[in-house]
Amino acid sequence: MKICFTADQQDGLESVLSYHFGHCPYYIIVEVEEDRVKDVKSMPNPFVGYHNPGELPAFMREHGIDTIITGGMGPRAQRYFEDYGIKAVTGAYGKVRDVLEEFLHRKISIEEPKPVEPKEVVIEKTGESDEIERLKKENVDLRRQLADLKSRLMKLEERLEK
Description:
- The structure is a single chain.
- This protein has helices at about 55-60, 75-85, 95-105, 130-160, and strands at about 1-5, 25-35, 35-45, 65-70, 85-90.
- It is α/β, with parallel strands linked by helices.
- It has one domain: Dinitrogenase iron-molybdenum cofactor biosynthesis domain (Nucleotidyltransferase, domain 5).
- Strands 3-2-1-4-5 form a 5-stranded mixed β-sheet.
- Strand 2 and strand 3 (about 35-45) form a beta hairpin.
- The model has no long low-confidence stretch (mean pLDDT about 85).
């Protein structure tokens, strides 16, 4: 089975999961056989700046992906993946290694896509691009901190179970 994780950096299993599949800078591809990691590859997202609906699911199919795991994905995108026979798992967070462990032990699972409700999107030009960039960097840093805390928590829980 080939699982694709969205990531903020290309540090393999130590990468922090990105919160949106289409806007993430990297993908971490993990090949798993009998719940054991066989291979790990990192690759840049070739569509990070812009993509048309359905391009990323087609790209994933070309790479033999069976499952994509991410923090978030819209229902329309989930349906595209479903059409290509790729399972989409959303709502995940943390380091790729920890999320993979959760997935393999069925602690996170595939959700059914929700119906698409059209939304009107209003984009305002405010001239505050420096503030936006600063907030984006803070967001990534907070996700990294959250991933580290989750790893520590999982290790502590594992010790308590023994």
